[in-house]
Design a protein that fits this description.
Length: 164
């Protein structure tokens, strides 16, 4: 296992990667909670007008019975999804199950023209055929560990690694 990269450094790479993926009509949508933190900061750092979208995977997860509803933010898409160019943002891409659930949630709101994905970390271990259009870093962790984005009181990003 390689050392866990610095989240703030990866955020700068993510910001540059997102900038390259943006079109004038692209709408940013963060997946709760880490992706929502990222999209809030990106919206400001990229000078984008309006509020970003926030999307929750809770209602479409295949493990909903075990996990239940999270206390994190629920879906808020302050724009018309129909025909939109959407760039989903998440902190960590692992099995692909959260992305599957988020896509189901997104299509409950309409039919976008295109949906792409940018992540801070791709840790491999896919169970579904999902890949990111941009990942600031790729590294693997043992299956028994989880990797989550954390944010301190000043808004600085860091990573938490815990035993599953």
């Amino acid at each position: 296992m390689s050392a866990v990269p610095q989240a703030e450094t990866l955020y700068l790479d993510l910001r540059d990667g997102v900038r390259k993926l943006m079109r004038p009509d692209t709408r940013l949508v963060g997946i709760t909670s880490g992706g929502a933190w990222l999209v809030e900061r990106l919206q400001s750092d990229l000078g984008l007008a309006g509020a970003p979208g926030i999307i929750s995977s809770a209602m479409h997860r295949d493990d909903f019975a075990r996990r239940g509803l999270a206390s994190s933010a629920q879906t808020s898409l302050p724009f018309d999804v129909n025909g939109a160019d959407i760039l989903l943002l998440d902190d960590v891409l692992y099995t692909g199950r959260t992305i599957r659930a988020v896509l189901n949630e997104l299509f409950d709101f309409g039919r976008p023209e295109r949906v792409r994905l940018a992540v801070l970390v791709d840790r491999g271990g896919r169970e579904l055929p999902v890949c990111a259009d941009f990942a600031a870093a790729h590294f693997e962790l043992p299956e028994a560990q989880t990797l989550e984005l954390a944010r301190d009181a000043d808004g600085a990003f860091g990573f938490k690694i815990e035993e599953a």
